[in-house]
Amino acid sequence: MTGAAVLAALAHAAGSFGPGLLAAAVGTPVAILAACAISRGRRRSPALMVLAPLPALAAALLAGFGAPFSYKSRAFDVTLALDAPGAMLLGAAALLWIGAAFYAGADGRGGDGDGRFRASWLLTLMGSLGVFVASDLLTFFLAFALVSLPAYGLIIADDNASRRAGAVYMAFTVAGETLLLMGFVLLAAGEPNGSLQIRDVVAALPGSPWGGAALALVVAGFVMKIGLAPLHGWMPLAYTAAPLPAAAVLSGAAVKAGVIGLIRFLPFSHALPAWGEGLAILGLFSAFYGVALGITQTNPKTILAYSSVSQMGVIAAVAGMGLASGDLRAPLDTAFYAAHHVLVKGALFLAIGACAAAGARRHWLAFLPAAALALSLAGLPFTGGALAKLAVKGTLGSGAIGALASFSAAGTTLLMLHFLFRLARNPSPDRGARTSGQLLSAWFAMALASILAPWLLFPLTGGHLSDALTPAALRESLWPMLPGAALALPLWRWGGRLPHPPAGDIVVIGEKIIRASYGAGAALERVEAGIRQWPAAAMALLGIAIILGAAMATGF
Amino acid sequence: MQAITTALTATMGGLLLALAIILPVAGVLLSFVLGGRAAERIALYLMPAGLGVAAMIALGVWRSGAPLVYLLGGWPPPLGIALRADGFSAVMLLTTALVILCAGLFARANFPTPAGVNEARAPFAFWILLQGLWAALNMVFLGGDLFNLYVALELLTFAAVPLVCLDGRAETLLAALRYLVFALFGSVLYLLGAALLYGAYGTLDIGLLSSRISASPAVWAAAALMTTGLLAKTALFPLHLWLPPAHANAPAAASAILSALVVKASFFITVRLWFDVLPSLPVETPAAILATLGSLAILFGSVLALRQERLKLLIAYSTVAQIGYLFLMFPLAAGLHPWTADAWSGGVLQTLSHAFAKAAMFLAAGLVAETLGHDRISGLRGLGKVMPMSVFVLGLGGLSLMGLPPSGGFTAKWLLLMASVRSGQWPWAIVMLAGGLLAGGYVYRVLAPAFASADLSLKAPAPRNRERIALALALCAILLGFAPSGFFAFLQIGRPALTAIP
Amino acid sequence: MNTASLAGITGALLVGLGLFGLVTNPRPLRKLLAFNLLGSGVFLLFGVLARRGAAAGIAADPVPQAMVITGIVVAFSATALAVALLLRLFEETGRSTLRADPPSKAAGDGSGA
Amino acid sequence: MTVVNALDIGLAALVLALAAWTVAAREAFAAAVGYVAYGLLLSLVWVRLFAVDVALTEAAIGSGVTGVLLIRAAARLRGATPALDEPLAPPLRFLAGVLCAMVAGALAATVLLMPDPAPTLAPQAVGNLPSTGLGNAVTAVLISYRAFDTMLEKVVLVLAVVGVWSLAPDACWGGSPGAPRPARPEAALAFLAQVLPPLGIVVGIHIFWVGADEPGGAFQGGAILAAMWMITMMAGLTEAPPVSSTRLRLVLVSGPAVFLAIGLAGVVIAGGFLAYPSGSAKPLILFIEAFMTLTIAATLPMLVAGPPEQPPQP
Amino acid sequence: MSAALDLLTIVAILAGLFFFLAGTVGLLRFPDPLSRLHALTKADNLGLGLIVVGLLPRAGGLLGVLKLVAVWFLVLLASATVAQLIAGAIRRKGSST
């Protein structure tokens, strides 16, 4: 009874405060950025960066546990709305941003003298929160650009590796934006009434003359964002290069822009088996590919990056299977799985710093929660990961794809054990990591949140917590882990003999192609130099006049 | 005939149109006589006044919902000359006034009359030419008579060319000479076309011509010649030989105006020609030819921008590319279809946002060159630390050039892409997208080293106040991305309306 | 063939000759001469059209005549500006050419302001 | 009739031959001289087209003053190194020829195919003459119907002067342009420069004055006055004034300035910019033309003289 | 009377044309610049004078006559000056080589 009363009160609060909170959620980061233009604001910036996601967290709680609400700006054509999947991801992302900002402050970043990091952080944050609440095409695209482009400033530092990572990241990002732009244009053009609401354009998608092209472009754009193999090349490079708090928010929160994109733009109300299964197969390929490449790496950050490639594959498979069967529950399930990944992956990146910072004697204090979280990703019973696997089980179905998806947990287990092994052995490569209470407490807080939050959120997906605790469920989540654990031993022993492809693997090929295209550029330059000679240009002038005249006279 | 003559009567507030031209002309004459410091003061006093006049014209157009018309000397066309301001004219006037004002404020530091002399060469010439340029631009945007537009174009050329070579270096003199001769080539072709139109129809008034025009050899030849002449002045590929050296070597304030406004003037007349004089003819093929040239411009301009080693040359080649986008509007906005209003708005918005973005970028690049003593891109490492605001301006401008939100460039691209999809003209969409990618490349080339943290030696302290001027222009380009729907309705004023949009 | 048609053909040929000179002659001064030739051809065509418009007791339409007068003055000013530029360029470099040097890549210094 | 026709054809052939010579001549100097002869013949063509106003302008400005400008430039450029200017390769020349021929052919065809009867504004221009008080329709177009064009074209002249002056070396600012004269003044030229100007000034003013009703006007009269000034400068009898001279600048802008002022006054007294009150139109127009004549007479020589070349005299 | 005047016109103009022709032939055929100049100025001035004389009866009034004479006078003045200048230039050039 009291639960119902609380819910009613929350729904009421959502109706009255929600819209304002949405605007505040998106506006706060930019307001803080403006405040940092003056020196007093700059001095407080680490604290302000921690506070920036709070309105978003509040909005997420209201919408998640209350009722959906929306906000429409009168001055600009901006509409924001928050529903359950959005709220789930928004809340998780906001939590991670808070924790990571706390960590970054402990790490001495984003302070008075670090304007680049601060501005990039706040803009990325704004986009990262914005994608979950944007409800029209243009706002979504704006938020998507914000979560993607300024992140460049979080990745780069002063070494060649990070510059390369930044360049590759930008290339992928701009290409993805381009695909997405064209996809959105097709979506908008296919909507007969001129509405730009995502809901309307997606509803019109199946009947649109450009539906297929639109879907393909949009999916391609989001797939680039979530880094599915073979479009994953930027991910290992960027996460390896970025400082830990940045890598945490990029891998945890920013990438989910692609996930929310899939959730929002796939027309789940229409079963599209070919599209859905295609996406699912791509996802599963990525799930195993990420593991295969991840176990060859030694840098914990790189391993986590490949784990993201793998995990995003599972998410894509879930979304794809949902689309294949026209499953309207798929968005929420996908969101839940993704929300779990937000917290865990973010926390694991922080763990790298925390372990390095903790002295050898108290190493276990930092390491044990990390181990729990890592195995949670593989679906260890009693962890949030198990809940996540449970949530998406129905959507994945029991066919070949479902089986393969379950089996991917074996790969995840192997990869995570490999990660823990390197984490235990390797001192952090992150120079900035220092012993500090604030740093450790940031890590503990994040770890705690990652473990607890899924249990709070799971009921929202319509599942019962007790379902996760039945022996059958426990067994089902445990068995795929066993082969993974079994494989970990030989990997431990003989892993050194594996080939060591460079981080980002096939991106090397892409870079070669780009370098080869410089030749084409030089050729164009020579042609242009010829055209710029007077006689050529003057004759071109006459030629254009003649062609234009002839075209008009013959009336083609 | 009778009906048309009555339609061409002056409207209320029409005198403002004349005033928009009279102000800078009077400024030129006064400055010429008083010279020296007075020229600067006159220019800087007139610019806000001119901005006010432009704003009042825009308000007038907005209030009446129809073009403003003024008959000079009270003589109605065809015998007399009419000035006319529609939505497009009004926004161009406003943009011109804003950019010129900013460029003027910016240039105060570059062109002061030194203490101790009555007058110095460069400031004297600069402030007079600046006002001449302004007068010519206003004439172009208001002119309703093709011969009057010819005079305006010549005035524009005469004001623009000496600005390029104010510093008197051989390099700039050569650039100016090439610019002048090619522009003259263009204007003589334009004049030839105008002569043919007069011979065939006995008038050069745009409004009268549009109702009289029919398919005839004279019209074909005239359209071809006038368009080509205007393309030469717009520097549409492959007629851009004069642009990169001229725009890259002029003083920063002049570069800003040349790239932002001067090339738009001849483009504006091209638009007038095809959308106001010739729309009753079948124009698909010529429009496709123009757009093809535009596509080539995007390709070549962007790739060449990618390969430049100097910042100002990179920005100048980016202008070559961005001019290409403008011409994609022709096949998309031709005729009366459900998508033409979008395409028109997109084309106009592209014109405006490029004007602001490019002016801002040239000003910022000028400051960088002044502060560092050079503008080699390879020497920009660490710029973000010493001149964060300039880098920010370059970034905002780049955002608009790439067509990323939030910016006028994005909205323009969105509208043009929508139009190309809905009209089934796919190639232009692909060109626009590819152009955006390439633009991303050359913007990255500038910004990436700027973000690096290296120590730069400065020749002069970074001038914050002047950086703010550039920032204001860049913010205008961004703000255009938030243009409300009423703004697009405003752009349609004076355009034939599609009554029933299916 | 009447005078107007003859003058029309003459004007068209003058335009052709002027264009040819403008396109092919490498010397800037010769380009200017060709430009003036081209211009006078255009003006002549204007005059032909004026002559064809003889009416109301006058032998040629006055409006194009006025335009030509304006045009001649403008063309003269253009020539004067171009000649001044050319002479200054000659003083600076000792050569008179319009050849497109590649937009100097090395000369990055002092390009500001 | 056939004799006249034959003469026309001969004239056209001569004009074209001179034009071809101008394009083809090897020496720039010779080409410039050819251009002057060409311009004079062309003004005969204009007479044949019954456009005497244009013929006068073409002879005075198109051929005369432009000719002086070009010949002077050619003389100065004689020392230019021709090494870099290799002529166009023959195939390209041929291509250019074909393109130019296509344009010329299309133009000729277009002009010959123009509609008959030709549209004309002559009746309107003549019909409105009484309200301007003028007799010469061309002057009426220039100063009344299309006054705006004419005023702005004067501004073009001012800008051209600014442009030319802006090419001065900094040290010479405020000084005088190099006078367009040869190194050694010639006695014969000095004699001409003493005899001719009194006559020329009378003729120039006459042409300006009759321009209201007969062929002539500010452009043509001003050009003749300009020629007189140029001759005296060439002969070394007068110096070009320094560019800092306020009097010179006042003269240079007086035409457009008076035009603009009277145009603005028209807003109050005649209900529109550049409108003249009926009744007093003719005196106002003559007033404007007088200043325009003065401006042209000063502007053309200053444009020919080029930028200041001597440092200002203390 | 009028027939006589017409005859005078025809004869004078024809004679004038002859001198022009002679001058032109001289310009084209004479070997050196000075003699070319000589042929041109002498013959052309005389030719123009004859043409002016031929046109006098048709001038239609004293003002017309005066204008024609003024034209001849101006041309004489100009060609005399120009011939001087050219000859001077030729001499300087000749002496310098």
TrEMBL record, chain A:
<feature type="transmembrane region" description="Helical">
    <location>
        <begin position="440"/>
        <end position="458"/>
    </location>
</feature>
<dbReference type="InterPro" id="IPR052175">
    <property type="entry name" value="ComplexI-like_HydComp"/>
</dbReference>
<keyword id="KW-0560">Oxidoreductase</keyword>
<feature type="transmembrane region" description="Helical">
    <location>
        <begin position="534"/>
        <end position="553"/>
    </location>
</feature>
<keyword id="KW-0456">Lyase</keyword>
<feature type="transmembrane region" description="Helical">
    <location>
        <begin position="47"/>
        <end position="67"/>
    </location>
</feature>
<feature type="transmembrane region" description="Helical">
    <location>
        <begin position="23"/>
        <end position="40"/>
    </location>
</feature>
<keyword id="KW-0472">Membrane</keyword>
<dbReference type="GO" id="GO:0005886">
    <property type="term" value="C:plasma membrane"/>
</dbReference>
<dbReference type="InterPro" id="IPR001750">
    <property type="entry name" value="ND/Mrp_TM"/>
</dbReference>
<dbReference type="Pfam" id="PF00361">
    <property type="entry name" value="Proton_antipo_M"/>
</dbReference>
<feature type="transmembrane region" description="Helical">
    <location>
        <begin position="278"/>
        <end position="296"/>
    </location>
</feature>
From TrEMBL, chain B:
<feature type="transmembrane region" description="Helical">
    <location>
        <begin position="255"/>
        <end position="275"/>
    </location>
</feature>
<dbReference type="InterPro" id="IPR050616">
    <property type="entry name" value="CPA3_Na-H_Antiporter_A"/>
</dbReference>
<feature type="transmembrane region" description="Helical">
    <location>
        <begin position="218"/>
        <end position="243"/>
    </location>
</feature>
<feature type="transmembrane region" description="Helical">
    <location>
        <begin position="426"/>
        <end position="448"/>
    </location>
</feature>
<feature type="transmembrane region" description="Helical">
    <location>
        <begin position="12"/>
        <end position="35"/>
    </location>
</feature>
<keyword id="KW-0456">Lyase</keyword>
<dbReference type="GO" id="GO:0016829">
    <property type="term" value="F:lyase activity"/>
</dbReference>
<dbReference type="GO" id="GO:0012505">
    <property type="term" value="C:endomembrane system"/>
</dbReference>
<feature type="transmembrane region" description="Helical">
    <location>
        <begin position="287"/>
        <end position="306"/>
    </location>
</feature>
<dbReference type="InterPro" id="IPR000540">
    <property type="entry name" value="Flag_MotA_CS"/>
</dbReference>
<keyword id="KW-0472">Membrane</keyword>
<feature type="transmembrane region" description="Helical">
    <location>
        <begin position="177"/>
        <end position="198"/>
    </location>
</feature>
TrEMBL record, chain D:
<feature type="transmembrane region" description="Helical">
    <location>
        <begin position="257"/>
        <end position="277"/>
    </location>
</feature>
<dbReference type="GO" id="GO:0005886">
    <property type="term" value="C:plasma membrane"/>
</dbReference>
<dbReference type="InterPro" id="IPR050622">
    <property type="entry name" value="CPA3_antiporter_subunitB"/>
</dbReference>
<feature type="transmembrane region" description="Helical">
    <location>
        <begin position="217"/>
        <end position="237"/>
    </location>
</feature>
<keyword id="KW-0812">Transmembrane</keyword>
<keyword id="KW-1003">Cell membrane</keyword>
<feature type="transmembrane region" description="Helical">
    <location>
        <begin position="155"/>
        <end position="176"/>
    </location>
</feature>
<feature type="transmembrane region" description="Helical">
    <location>
        <begin position="46"/>
        <end position="71"/>
    </location>
</feature>
<feature type="transmembrane region" description="Helical">
    <location>
        <begin position="284"/>
        <end position="304"/>
    </location>
</feature>
<dbReference type="InterPro" id="IPR007182">
    <property type="entry name" value="MnhB"/>
</dbReference>
<feature type="transmembrane region" description="Helical">
    <location>
        <begin position="188"/>
        <end position="210"/>
    </location>
</feature>
<dbReference type="Pfam" id="PF04039">
    <property type="entry name" value="MnhB"/>
</dbReference>
TrEMBL record, chain E:
<keyword id="KW-0812">Transmembrane</keyword>
<keyword id="KW-0472">Membrane</keyword>
<dbReference type="InterPro" id="IPR005133">
    <property type="entry name" value="PhaG_MnhG_YufB"/>
</dbReference>
<dbReference type="GO" id="GO:0015385">
    <property type="term" value="F:sodium:proton antiporter activity"/>
</dbReference>
<keyword id="KW-1133">Transmembrane helix</keyword>
<dbReference type="Pfam" id="PF03334">
    <property type="entry name" value="PhaG_MnhG_YufB"/>
</dbReference>
<feature type="transmembrane region" description="Helical">
    <location>
        <begin position="69"/>
        <end position="90"/>
    </location>
</feature>
<feature type="transmembrane region" description="Helical">
    <location>
        <begin position="6"/>
        <end position="31"/>
    </location>
</feature>
<protein>
    <submittedName>
        <fullName>Multicomponent Na+:H+ antiporter subunit G</fullName>
    </submittedName>
</protein>
